[in-house]
Write a structure and sequence with these properties.
elongated, binds zinc ion, mainly alpha, 4 helices, 2 domains, about 160 residues
């Protein structure tokens, strides 16, 4: 999607939080499609789905698309993508909502994977989010702000920070 920027410029805890929302929306999308299929399947033969249910479905759908655009924007901002790409991807959300969400999620999880943080079905764990905070040890989450030496080994786990 975007050119890789320095990880230190990115809002890493923000990526972890916002990708959780993107993941939730992917789940909501699947649920919405399954509901739609069930409604069509359960409709009496030859009969249409009740108009009120059809309308409710479209309202849900609209809310879903809007939520996707908002969650996507937050995630792209956290990844420090340029304004041009953010606008472009937000517009692409309208016709290709699901695909854009998947692309964003995989982009964000790739960034975290490079940093050694796994994201599962429930996103990133709280302990992992702490490790992503600025000034924390990336292995154990120790708050390094009190250390005089920028590149001193972590007192907890002996990890030496890497400069990107
Ligand atoms: Zn450590």
């Amino acid at each position: 999607m975007a050119k890789a920027k320095s990880f230190e410029d990115m809002d890493l805890p923000g990526i972890a939080v916002h990708m959780k929302w993107v993941l939730a929306l992917i789940g909501a999308y699947v649920l919405l499609i399954a509901t739609n299929i069930a409604l069509v399947a359960l409709a009496p033969p030859g009969g249409a789905v009740a108009p009120a249910i059809g309308l409710a479905f479209w309202v849900l759908w609209l809310g879903f698309v809007l939520a996707s655009i908002v969650a996507g924007m937050f995630l792209m901002l956290a990844m420090r993508m340029g304004i041009g790409s953010i606008v472009l991807w937000s517009i692409l959300m309208l016709p290709f909502n699901f695909l854009v969400l998947i692309a964003m999620y995989s982009q964000a999880s790739t960034i975290l994977k490079v940093l050694g943080v796994k994201s599962g079905f429930f996103g990133v764990s709280r302990a992992d989010r702490e490790r992503l905070m600025p000034g924390r040890c990336r292995r154990c989450g120790y708050d390094r702000s009190g250390l005089a030496e920028m590149l001193a080994a972590c007192p907890e786990c002996a990890r030496v920070p890497i400069v990107w």
